[in-house]
Structure formats: structure tokens, C-alpha cells
Amino acid sequence: MKKDNLTKVVFLDRDGTVNPDKNGFINHPDDFELYPFAAEAISLLNKSGYLVLIVTNQSGIAREFYTLEDLEIIHKKMQDSLAEQGAKIDAIYISPYHIEGKLEPYNIDHEDRKPGLGMFKKALKKYNFQINSSFMIGDRYADIAFGKKAGLTTFLVLTGDGKKEFYKNRDSWKYKPDFIVKNLMSAVKLIERLK
Ligand SMILES: [Mg+2]
To answer: Fewer Cβ atoms within 10 A, N terminus or C terminus of the chain?
Structure first.
């Protein structure tokens, strides 16, 4: 008999959700800092048994603002700061693509770029999680469209670009967020109550 699959995932956008998106592109670890609530929010998800996966559009790679190696160093800093506070990201998915970029082979339109579902499909193949018990949290419409297309419950956070996205563009949204919340911690508290 097949064992029930109980794996559940919380997908997190990075910039504007886990850390402030300072100048649009973070190209040095010195410019990377977590939001003060991020580690505690992620550790709550860890304790509740969710896999925590980051899905991040990093078109700065295609645009040659920074390299994949730079990004690795930045992500090591992120994981180290989280670890110091008892939290952990289980995996980080990156989309380096942008059609207006210069660097080959990343200067193309690609399904990996949110709202495309490439990163979701890779995660589903690896972790075979329950889609309808899983979540997406992000500050941009692309995060919401990604989550809704994938069948996830979605949270728009009002940190990062969230406020601007919501007030300026919400009337034109084809996909609406299931919840609009102050920040990552508010989203996590709501997830704990929805269980
Ligand atoms: Mg973002």
C-alpha cells in the first residue's frame, strides 16, 4: 500500500518578503539583511513540519549585475544568519533569466521566471508535496500569479513592493491573493491557524 504523502511546503519569495529589497538588486552580502521577524517566522514553519523553499527571480544574473557565485555567497550569509537564530531554508530555487539581459544562456524568456511555474515544477518533482496544503508568500503580483496557477494558497505581504503593488495594480489582477497580510510573520501566524 502506498504511504500517504504528508509533505507540505511553504514557498517564499526572497526580496521584499524575507529581506528588504534595497535598491532592486542586491549584489553584495553586505547589502543583504533579513527582516527582523524573518528568522522567527521561518523557524515556526520549520517546527510545524513545513518544507521552506525560496523561489526567487534573479534577473540581475542575466543583466550582469552580479554572478551566480555572488548569489551563492549572499545565500550562504542568509542561511548562516537564519541558523544563528534557529531557522533554516530547505532549498533555494533561482531564476537567473530575463529577456532583456545580456548574459547567455540566461537572456531569454524562461518558464523558471515567476509567474512561470518552472521552479514550482522542479520542487514538486523533488519533494512530491501536497499542493492543496501548501502555500506561497510574496510581495509581488508575479508571486501571487505563480502561487494561484500552481494551486497553492497565496499571501501577499505588504512589505517590499507589496503596498505599491496592491494600491496601484490590484484592479487589473487576474489572480487575486487569498490573503493580504502585513508581513511574513503575519502570514505564518495565519498558516498556523489554518492548519
Ligand atoms: Mg519580492
So the answer is: N
- Enter the pTM of the model: 0.96
Is residue 30 part of the annotated active site? The answer reads no
What is the number of structural domains in the chain?
Answer: 1
Instruction: Give the start-end residues of each E strand in 7-162.
Output: 9-12, 51-57, 91-95, 135-138, 153-157
Walk along the chain (195 residues) and give the pLDDT tens digit of each residue. 445 678 999 999 999 999 998 767 899 999 999 999 999 999 999 999 999 999 999 999 999 999 999 999 999 999 999 999 999 999 999 999 999 999 999 999 999 999 999 999 999 999 999 999 999 999 999 999 999 999 999 999 999 999 999 999 999 999 999 999 999 999 999 999 987
Catalytic residue among 15, 139, 143, 161: 15
For Cα atoms 79, 126, 45, give the angle at the middle one, nearest 5 degrees: 45
Q: How far is the CA of 141 from the centre of ligand 1 (A)?
A: 9
Give the structural domain span for 77.
9-194
Measured in Å, residue 164 CA sits from the centre of ligand 1 at 12
166 within domain boundaries: yes
Q: What angle do CA 16, 194, 190 make, to 5 degrees?
A: 35
CATH number at residue 103: 3.40.50.1000
